[in-house]
Every structure is written in structure tokens, then in C-alpha cells.
Amino acid sequence: MQYFFFVGVVCIIISGISVGAWTTSQQQRATFNTETTAFRRSRTKIAIYSGFLGILSLAISGMMYLKNTI
Fold first, then answer.
1. Residues 5-63: pLDDT tens digits?
2. Which residues contact 16 (CB under 8 A, 6 or more apart)?
3. Sorted alphabetically, which InterPro entries does this protein's record hold (predicted)?
4. pTM of the prediction?
């Protein structure tokens, strides 16, 4: 159960870093203006896949927790 929780949290953090969720508006603007379209697409793809994996892992962890408490 703890494995899925930690994997979920790490994947959500990776997703946030990839999409630039924890940056200021000036940093986001600078990144957007200096990166290529191909790199932006690959970064977004990484963010979507890791976010989905993180949500799935957290859901599995939650279901395992509920199963053990009931």
C-alpha cells in the first residue's frame, strides 16, 4: 500500500515540475519563449503520463487502505 502511495506522490511531483506548475509567471514566460515546440510537446506528454500514473497509483493506494479498514 505504501509503495503505491509513494509512487503516486513522486509521479504527481514529476508531473508538476514538467508542466511548470510550481514556477512564477516570469519563469513560465521565460521558459515558454526559449523552448521549441517539439520540446514543449514532449514535456507536456511527460506531464500527462506521469500525472495519470500518479492519480492511478493514489487511487489504488486509497482502495487498498479502504479495504484494510473495512
1. 999 999 999 999 999 888 888 998 888 888 899 999 999 999 999 999 999 999 999 99
2. 22, 47
3. DUF5316 (IPR035167)
4. 0.86
Q: Among all chains, which residue has been given the C-alpha cell 511531483?
A: 13
Q: Are 60 and 9 in contact, with CB atoms under 8 Å apart?
A: no
Q: Are 15 and 58 spatial neighbours (Cβ–Cβ below 8 Å)?
A: no
Q: How many CB atoms lie within 10 A of CB 63?
A: 12
* Under 8 Å between Cβ of 14 and 49: no
Q: Which residues contact 13 (CB under 8 A, 6 or more apart)?
A: none
Three cell numbers written together for 13: 511531483
How far apart are the C-alpha atoms of 63 and 31, rounded to whole Å? 38
Cell of 8: 503516486
